[in-house]
């Protein structure tokens, strides 16, 4: 069986593929891969699912949110972030459930701004919180023993510190976040927010 990683070319995605590959067969995809998968374009998900056997797990590490002062954020900014990081991940779950084996799992991604906002993070904080809430609500409804969790990483970097509004915030290397993703894939938990690095 294969674990699907959507968003495999980002910093966390690359680390997740490397970590999961030690235990599973992994198919890593992104908007620039072949096949190309963009979670804001549901037809790309359908095309992928139609050409593969059911997956053991689906990991989503994709989705963008705007980061700007609240006064500068428009309705369109919020809608774009919701369409990408929130509704994009919801689409993966809704369309992917039929393409998971019994007892398979989804792992989504949010972030520490849901609990620890900074100036400029109003949209990101709201959308990360929405992802966390979706996972809690979806867990008891998924069929066939399918599990769902969300990994909420701290700031991710191999550098020792961030400046500006993130000064003093916890930082974790991507490899540490990947260990939380492995836990979500291989464990028995469901409906959980797995905090990585904070």
UniProtKB/TrEMBL annotation:
Pfam families: adh_short_C2 (PF13561). Keywords: Oxidoreductase. InterPro entries: NAD(P)-bd_dom_sf, SDR_DHRS6-like, SDR_fam. GO terms for molecular function: oxidoreductase activity. Belongs to the short-chain dehydrogenases/reductases (SDR) family. This is Short chain dehydrogenase.
């Amino acid at each position: 069986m294969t674990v699907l990683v959507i968003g495999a070319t980002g910093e966390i995605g690359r680390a997740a593929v490397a970590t999961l590959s030690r235990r599973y067969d992994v198919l890593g995809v992104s908007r620039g891969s072949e096949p190309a998968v963009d979670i804001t374009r549901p037809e790309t998900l359908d095309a992928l699912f139609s050409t593969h056997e059911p997956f053991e797990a689906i990991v989503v590490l994709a989705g963008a949110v705007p980061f700007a002062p609240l006064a500068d954020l428009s309705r369109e900014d919020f809608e774009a972030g919701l369409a990408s990081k929130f509704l994009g991940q919801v689409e993966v779950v809704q369309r992917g459930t039929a393409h998971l084996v019994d007892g398979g799992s989804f792992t989504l991604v949010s972030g520490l701004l849901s609990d620890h906002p900074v100036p400029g993070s109003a949209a990101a904080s709201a959308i990360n919180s929405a992802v966390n809430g979706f996972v809690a609500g979806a867990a008891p409804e998924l069929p066939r023993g399918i599990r769902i969790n969300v990994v909420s990483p701290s700031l991710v970097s191999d550098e020792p510190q961030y400046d500006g509004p993130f000064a003093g915030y916890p930082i974790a290397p991507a490899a540490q976040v990947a260990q939380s993703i492995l836990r979500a894939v291989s464990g028995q938990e469901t409906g959980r927010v797995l905090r990585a690095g904070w």
